[in-house]
Amino acid sequence: MSNYQSDIQAFENLCKEQGSPWHAISPEYAARMKLQNRFKTGLDIARYTAKIMRADMEAYDQDSSQYTQSLGCWHGFIGQQKMLAVKKHHGTTSKRYLYLSGWMVAALRSEFGPLPDQSMHEKTSVASLIEELYTFLRQADARELGDLFRQLDEAKAAGKDTRDIEDKIDNYETHVVPIIADIDAGFGNEEATYLLAKKMIEAGACCIQIENQVSDAKQCGHQDGKVTVPHEDFLAKINAVRYAFLELGVEDGVIVARTDSLGAGLTQKIPVTQAPGDLASQYNAFLETSPVNSVDDVNDGDLVIKQNGKLAKPVRLPNGLFRFKEGSGEDRVVLDCITSLQNGADLLWIETEKPHVQQIGNMVSRIREVIPNAKLVYNNSPSFNWTLNFRQQVFDAWAEAGKDVSAYNREELMAAKYDDTELAQEADEKVRTFQADASREAGIFHHLITLPTYHTAALSTDNLAKGYFGDEAMLAYVKGVQRREIREGLACVKHQAMAGSNLGDDHKEYFSGEQALKAAGEDNTMNQFDAAS
């Protein structure tokens, strides 16, 4: 007996127990609604997706070609359409996640209007977006299962064998996948971090990414002015997130510890050393200092510390922040990563200024000397000029190898005149293989693009507006949007069905029987797309 038939039988027995008051309840309809709502709560989702992510991490440890990917989504509909596309084109959602970008929450979801990525938006927006994303993914499941149920009914009515359709129902692959969710720097102290983490997990997050910047001075990882916190402060927030997972019964929840130290030259706080060589001492060793030989070297309000048996004065800026030594970024990154993994983090995120496999790999190699299975989540950021970066990398490699580069100007390689050159083609191939190369050579388990759908929304809207308000007029939409939807098989061309009208009709029939007033019928204009090809 199939799982579907087992559920029908269970509801049939329940209805018999209840007797005549339940005479209008169809066991088969109840079984369908149960299957269409597999995940009853966000915690059900978090527990389910955490197991997926842990299994994927183990698979990557065995074979680095088994890396995972995601795209950042700023709305539930965008996330839904992404996963529909993944299943349509690749046949499975395996190893494909969603990323929730704090940048896009700030820029697109704040009641204040568009904001920079500086933790100024409402922190509740983050958990709300997680819940919204999963609502749309669950609706995608319900919609596709509804289509299978209709096929089942048609097959039964025609007297056909239904075993193949029931097998598809029993083995249906959900659109619900792990979300890596950005909690920024925790939106406050460790208690604030814990409270927000709980909301995010209750909404469905199995993986939370947190960064080592000062919460109230947080900057986008690709902007200047970043300020880091001492390790003790950051580890307290990692503990807070872990406690939130444990409290809610998501024991295998995943924590991504992000370090911005490569581009952060400042700290707000000098931690207190408890013993020689402890974390505070190691952090303070990176401070830029000047020697103190006498009281004359100290001005009013200056702070003096003892290092290696000598007095030193940390360099402090007019805003009270302290400066790190020039060139210490990579060493600080390595210490950050090792410390985070030794104190409860599961994955690392190293924010870099360019996508360079060797640069990332060098840091990961040093980390793996201490933590052999260390692995990264990496931001394939739109803040990088990928075309220019990789063309310059190829240019430099050619020049070092003695190849003639006289036909190219390194500083102008972004120019369209180079698009069809051998150098550009080699650079594009390196971009294409970047994720596989970096996963093999630099320990990257998960590749994400933080805000791609911000850019795709802008680009597609620009293309439509250019034509629609110009000479193409309505043809701009018909040719550039609707005809492409039809030709490329986008289910969204039937937007009423995508928004849930067929699901609503099914429920009306379940609840009201023949009295149901349905939206689907001869006069529904969506029928015009039934023969579309």
From TrEMBL:
It comes from the Bacteria. It catalyses: D-threo-isocitrate = glyoxylate + succinate. This is Isocitrate lyase. GO terms for molecular function: isocitrate lyase activity. Keywords: Lyase, Metal-binding. It holds the Pfam family ICL. Signal peptide: none annotated.
